[in-house]
Amino acid sequence: MKTGHDRIEKDPDQQVQGALRIVFAKFAELQSVRQVHVWLREEGIALPTACHSTAEGRSVVWRLPLYNTVHNILTNPVYGGAYAFGRTTSKISVEEGRKRVKRGVRRPLAEWDVLLKDQHDGYISWVEFERNQQVIANNATGKGSAVARGAVRRGELLLAGLLRLWPLRS
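Predicted structure:
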């Protein structure tokens, strides 16, 4: 939560803090954004979402999470105690003679404009944040330039999980 012009602090609401801690604890256990998302929904655990309205200002709304909500929490460096700027960029291309702009294209960490570690109290350490990013990248199969190092996709054992032994009847 941003407090003032240049300060970031955890939300003072203990329920908000607890919900975010659950996301990081479950990711440490399950090692998959998708599995954390599925678990949260199966358990009926809602996550906080900041709602900004002109009448009330900032308020928190609790909702069952979408996959993107969980992914954004796990990949946002603010939860690792860091300040980052320039994590995304815009890509401009020409298609059928028309200019197309794709906004919000994620940039690799090495290309971020600013990364200041240990700027505030995070929900996880920076080391854990980096480890989580590596796990998420390793889980990605065929997305962008990620090398598929996740589940095996070919080979003799591909069908092994589809076999089921039926008891023989005499």
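Summary: Confidence is low (pLDDT under 50) at residues 144-148, 159-164.
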